[in-house]
Amino acid sequence: MRRGISILLFAALVSGCMEHENFYNPEQTEEEAKKNFPVQDIDPEQDWNMTTSRSLQVSVNEKTGETYTIKVYDGYPFSVAGARLLAKETVQNGGMKTIKFDAPAMLDRVYVMRQLTSTDYYAKAADLKNGQFTVTFGEALSKAAAARGVTRAAAITPRYDICPAEAADIQEVTGFKKGSYVIRQTVTVDGEVQIGNDVHLYIENGGALVMTGAKGLKMNNKNSSVSVLSGGRLEIQHAGLIMNGNNGNNENPEFYCAENSVVSVGDVDLKDCIWVNDGMFTASVDDGFVMGHGVQLQNNCRLEISSKKGSKDDILRTADDKGKSYSVFNNQGYVRVKGDAEWENLYVNLAGKGVFDIEGELDLDDDVTFTVTGQNTLIKADEIEWDEDVEIAAGSETLKISCSKVDVDDDEDDEGTVKLPDYVELVNSDLIDNGKCTVDYETKEDEDKDKPAVSTFGFEDVVGEETDYDFNDVVLHVSNVIDRQITVTLVAVGAINAITVQYSLDNGNSYSDLTFNGKTEVHDAFGIPVTQMKNTDTPITETGSDCPSCKITVPGSDFSFASTGRIRIQAMDKENKLRTIESFAKRGDVPYALCVPVAWAYPKERQRISDAYPAFGEWGQNKDSSPDWYIKK
C-alpha cells in the first residue's frame, strides 16, 4: 500500500514539474504575450519599421577652389525649436556627392545647408522624388533659371513729380476745379478733401496739408494726383487715404511721396491707382493698408505700417478680388510691417536693396509671383505660409527668405506636398536699420550647436502575460552617423532585473557589448541598484550629462544603421535565465521593442503604448494608416 502511495506521489510531483515547465515554455509565453498585446488583428505586412535609409544628391557651383560643409536637417534649421542633423559631409566646389543617411520613413522633405564659414551659409529645401533628395547650390541654378525667359514688371515712375509754374498757390482748401494747385505753407483742414477729375495737388518744400477731421483724402476720379514734393508734408491724423480709379492705367489717380518728404496717414485703401514712394510714408491703421485690384505700387524708400490698436491681423494685405486684375508691388526700399501680412493676386518685384520686414506672419496665398533682381534683397518674417500657387518668375534671381518657420500648404484635393522652389534661399539674418531709405542685413553667427538626429529604441524585458507594453524597460537614443560615429545614450530603465545592451554592425552576424561609464549593466551605468527604475515617471526627449552615453565607430560615413545595424538587450528572467530581446520583429508578429525615428516621448511606467498613443492601434492593424502615430499623443 505504501509503495502504491509513493508511486502516486512521485507521479503527482512529476506532473507538477511538467506543468511548471509549461508555464515558462517559450511558445506558450509568446501566445500569452500576443493575447496581452494592445493591438489585435495585426496587419500581416506590419514589420513595425519606421526608419529607412535615404540619399541626397548635392551639387555646389559657387566659389572656385572652396570646400563646403553640407548639413542635412530633418526640419527647418532656423526655427526657434531647431531641427535635428541627419548628416554632415564636405563637397568641393564644382563637385557632386551622394550623401546617405537614416531618416523617418515618412519624411519627404529635408533642409540642406551649405556652409563656408560661420557667417557664410544658407539652406534650401529638398523634396523626396523617386526615393531620393536632390539639391543644387550656385551657378548652375542661376543659368537654368535665366534660360526660362521672363517678362519683368517695369519700375513705376511718377508722372506728377514737378509742380508746374501755372499751379495756383492756395492757403485753404474749399474745393477744387480742374487744374493744378500748390501748397507752400501749412494748411489745416477739418473735413474731407476730394481730388476730382483732372485735379493735381502739389505740396512743396515748407508746405504741409494737415487733416484733423474724421474724414480723409479721397481720390476716386480720373487723371487726378496728389504729390508731396521734397520738403513737403502730408498729415492725416484720424482718417486715411482712399484711391479708387477704375479709369485705365493712363488715367488712374496717382499718389507720389518724393524724396525728403514725409507722409503720415491712417488706413490706406487702394484700387486701380498708382502709388509711388521715394520718401518716408507711415500708416498707423485701424483696418489696414489694403491693396485691391489693379494697384501699381513702387516703394523706393521707407514704408512703415503699424496698428493703432496693437493688433497684428493682416495689416498689410490684398483685397479678396479674385478674378480681377492683379496688383504690382515693386520694392527696392524698406517696407516694415509691425504685424501680419496676407497677399494674393499680386506680383512682387524686389530689386536693389529691397527688403520686406514682416514682424508677424506672411501668408502667401493664391497667385503670388515673385521676381528678384539683385543679391541684396530679402523677405524677413516671423513665419511664412507658402501656398502651392506661389511662384518665382522665370528668369528671376534667387529669392532670399529669413524667418523662424516656413509652412508649405498644398491643396487638399491634390496628392503629395508642395515643393518649395529651388530658387528660394533660406537665410538666417539680422537687419541693420539706420533709419534711412534702405536697410542692410547680415548673416547671424552660426553657433555650431547642431543636435544629431536620433532614433529611440524602447524595449520590453518581460515576454508573457506580465508584459505591460510601455516600452520603457530600456530606452536608448541612437544617433545618426556624424563624422563616422554613432552616439548611443542610455535614457531610461524601467526594469528591475539585470540587463545588458549589445549592438551589431553586420546585420546581427556578430554582437558587442555597449559600455556606459565603464559599465555594461544598465542600472550600474546610472549608478542605481537593480531594483530601482530611472526616468520612467517623466519621459526624457532631451538628454543631458545625467544620461550616460558611448560612441560606436562605423566603417564609413555612408553606413546605414537602419539597413545593417542592430540593437538588442539581454535580460535575466524569473528563472534566472538569460532572455534576448531583439529590436526587430517578423512581419505580423508582436514586437517587444520599437525603434521610433525621433527623440520619442515614450510611455510612463505601466502606461500601455495604446493609452499613450491612441493611433498606435490603427497603425498596427494597417501599416499604411497613421504612420505618424508617434507624434499624436
Task: Name a few traits of the molecule.
9% helix, 633 residues, disordered N terminus, 19-stranded parallel beta sheet, 11-stranded parallel beta sheet, mainly beta, 7 helices, 49 strands
Radius of gyration (CA) equals 34 Å
Low-pLDDT parts are 1-24, 140-152, 412-416
- Gross geometry: elongated
Q: What number is the mean pLDDT?
A: 89
Biggest β-sheet description: 19 strands, parallel
Q: Which oligomeric form is depicted?
A: single chain
The computed structural class is mainly beta
Counted beta strands:
49
At a glance:
The chain is mainly beta and 633 residues long. It has 7 helices and 49 strands. It has a 19-stranded parallel β-sheet that branches. Strands 8-9-12-15-18-21-24-27-30-32-34 form an 11-stranded parallel β-sheet, with no helix packed on it.
Q: In words, what does this structure look like?
A:
The chain has seven helices and 49 strands. The strands form seven sheets. The protein has a 19-stranded parallel beta sheet that branches. Helices cover 9% and strands 40% of the residues. A hairpin with a 2-residue loop joins strand 5 (109-117) and strand 6 (120-127).
Layout of helices and strands, plus pairs?
Layout: H1 2-23, H2 26-36, E1 51-61, E2 67-73, E3 84-92, E4 96-104, E5 109-117, E6 120-127, E7 133-138, H3 139-146, E8 168-169, E9 179-183, E10 186-189, E11 193-194, E12 199-203, E13 208-211, E14 217-219, E15 225-228, E16 233-236, E17 241-244, E18 254-257, E19 262-265, E20 268-271, E21 273-277, E22 280-285, E23 289-291, E24 295-299, E25 302-307, E26 316-318, E27 327-331, E28 334-337, E29 341-343, E30 346-351, E31 355-364, E32 368-373, E33 378-386, E34 390-392, E35 399-403, E36 406-408, E37 424-427, E38 429-432, E39 440-443, E40 451-452, E41 454-459, E42 474-479, E43 485-493, E44 499-504, E45 512-513, H4 522-526, E46 549-553, H5 561-564, E47 566-572, E48 578-582, E49 593-596, H6 609-612, H7 616-621
